[in-house]
């Protein structure tokens, strides 16, 4: 499997520059004191569409040929990828067809419509999502852009770590949350090219630990019946991302839901910023494994801030 090169990732950043924010890096001396290490937070919660997903979607859309662009793009997603793809399509003036389960949060549907995406609803199960998407692609000729298991998407997500290490070159470790693995895969790939000495970790909820189990088993173990507040990390690991993660990720850190909620609250209280539960998982994983990171300079990617403020867990 041929992965994107360092040059590919650098070109991706140039390609999507006008689509995205170069997000800031924040620190908190209070959190450093609690953690026993120096943490740098890359704030993708301030990204366009409120999440890192804007990067991969923009890169994939920008790489389409004129012929493909004319027919538009399609995906199935009930989360941040849906909004990210709708927005990327809107920016260059092409149609976006988004298959969403009927029980997807209204706030997510509103975001997709706000970016000009056309929503096609389906039953809330994977089979219905896939068959509905197949039908949409057949009828429209649109290009299917998957949320994470797609090389152009992984290449786009890797631009986050490229900015991070460019702005903060002395980091010793990087931690990213892992669901489908697009962000962690892209982060691990970039760090390997940039400086193989940088240790990359994934962070995952204990109630949805398929990446942890897959890494230990040396093969993909699909996610079954995940139970966690971190609703952005419920998907199974993608094949492309498993390949990258197996090679370049040192370990997956696990955190319980109470630990995730505690870390989320800590970021709200100490840093005064809005993050979603999935976004708190890396800090929760670090705090559950403090000894490993004692005295080190650690980079954490805060993946997104799309949270229903009426349903905060604290």
UniProtKB/TrEMBL annotation:
Pfam families the record matches = PALP
Which example biological process does GO assign this protein? D-serine biosynthetic process
UniProt-recorded Gene Ontology molecular function terms: ATP binding; L-serine ammonia-lyase activity; magnesium ion binding; pyridoxal phosphate binding; serine racemase activity; threonine racemase activity
Keywords assigned by UniProt, alphabetized: Lyase, Magnesium, Pyridoxal phosphate
According to its UniProt record, which cofactors does this protein need? Mn(2+); pyridoxal 5'-phosphate; Mg(2+); Ca(2+)
Give the PANTHER family listed for this entry.
SERINE / THREONINE RACEMASE FAMILY MEMBER, SERINE RACEMASE
Recorded family membership: Belongs to the serine/threonine dehydratase family.
Protein name according to UniProt:
Pyridoxal-phosphate dependent enzyme
Q: Which organism is it from?
A: Algoriphagus kandeliae
């Amino acid at each position: 499997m041929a992965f994107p090169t360092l040059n590919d990732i650098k070109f991706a950043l140039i390609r999507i520059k006008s689509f995205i924010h170069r997000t800031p890096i924040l620190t908190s001396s209070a959190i450093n004191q609690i953690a026993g290490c120096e943490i740098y937070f890359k704030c993708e919660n301030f990204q366009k569409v409120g999440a890192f997903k804007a990067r991969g979607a923009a890169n994939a859309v920008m790489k389409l040929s004129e012929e493909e662009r004319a027919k538009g793009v399609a995906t199935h997603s009930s989360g941040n990828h849906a909004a990210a793809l709708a927005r990327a399509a809107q920016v260059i003036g092409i149609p976006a067809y988004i298959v969403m389960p009927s029980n997807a949060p209204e706030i997510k549907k509103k975001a997709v419509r706000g970016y000009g995406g056309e929503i096609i609803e389906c039953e809330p199960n994977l089979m219905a999502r896939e068959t509905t998407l197949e039908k949409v692609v057949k009828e429209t000729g649109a290009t299917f852009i998957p949320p994470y298991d797609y090389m152009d998407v992984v290449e786009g997500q890797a631009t986050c770590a490229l900015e991070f290490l460019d702005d903060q070159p002395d980091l010793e470790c990087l931690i990213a949350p892992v669901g489908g693995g697009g962000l962690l895969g892209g982060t691990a790939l970039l760090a390997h090219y940039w400086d193989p000495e940088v240790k990359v970790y994934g962070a995952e909820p204990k109630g949805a630990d398929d990446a942890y189990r897959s890494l230990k088993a040396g093969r993909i173990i699909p996610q079954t019946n995940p139970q966690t507040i971190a609703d952005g990390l419920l998907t199974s690991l993608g094949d492309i991302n498993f390949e990258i993660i197996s090679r370049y990720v040192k370990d997956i850190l696990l955190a319980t839901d109470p630990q995730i909620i505690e870390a989320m609250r800590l970021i709200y209280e100490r840093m005064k910023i809005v993050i979603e539960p999935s976004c708190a998982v890396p800090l929760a994983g670090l705090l559950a494994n403090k000894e490993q990171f004692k005295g080190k300079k650690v980079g954490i990617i805060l993946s997104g801030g799309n949270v229903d403020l009426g349903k905060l867990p604290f």
